[in-house]
Amino acid sequence: MTCPICRKDSDPKYRPFCSRRCADIDLGRWLTGAYVIPGDAGEEEDRAPRRPDEEPLH
After folding, report:
1. Residue 41 near residue 32 (C-beta atoms within 8 A)
2. What pLDDT does 36 receive?
3. What residues have CB less than 8 Å from 57, skipping those under 6 apart?
4. Could you tell me which residues come within 8 angstroms of residue 34 by beta carbon, excluding any fewer than 6 positions away?
5. What is the Cα–Cα distance from 58 to 43, expressed in whole angstroms?
6. What's the burial of 18, exposed, middle or buried (CB within 10 Å: 0-12/13-18/19+)?
């Protein structure tokens, strides 16, 4: 198996990555929004918490 970030052989300790560095790069991409899982546009709005003074969406 190869590392999805740098294409070197993966290390079982960091699987599927080759090193902690590549694992951290991947995590950083998720945290900054570089990776996005597609979904319905309204799906996120339905789960978003509302302030008590907000009116419900209809």
Report:
1. no
2. 85
3. 45
4. 28
5. 14
6. buried
